[in-house]
Design a protein that fits this description.
single chain, two-stranded antiparallel ribbon, mainly alpha, Wheat Germ Agglutinin (Isolectin 2), domain 1, 10% strand
Amino acid sequence: MTIKTCKQCGRTKGLRQFDRHPQCKQGRRPECSVCRKAYLARTIAVRREQWRGYRRKAKERDWAGYVLSSVRTSAVRRGLSFALTRLDLPDPLPEKCPVLGIPLVYGMNSRENRFASPSLDRINSALGYIPGNVVVVSWRANSLKKDATPTELRALADYYAETP
């Protein structure tokens, strides 16, 4: 048999229009490739939103646990050393950014307060995430630092201090 009817759209199509699946009749899925792609697109979008909601709530409940998990994953992916525990983070967590002095907003992640969200910064980037080498600062302070040297940061500050 070289034709099959799709269970989703009801159209009769050639067998090659159906994805292979060893456990289904005729070794093909019951829905055609077009219907399957549409279903997967819808399902993935819904699950992506569910996952974002879960991550947002986890971040609000336990920022320290959330950030340690995220940083560990990032460190492994980038080949950096990671040896932090909750005890290595300040307790209580700072309410203001030690660099810029702006209030830190924990748990919320939106465009309005992105700059005020806390970020774990490595003091010496070459050492990785080890005890004594991290500090909690605002995302804005961490993004300003990125790859600038202290000399470059001083030159930038001096320039803007003198510019009217």
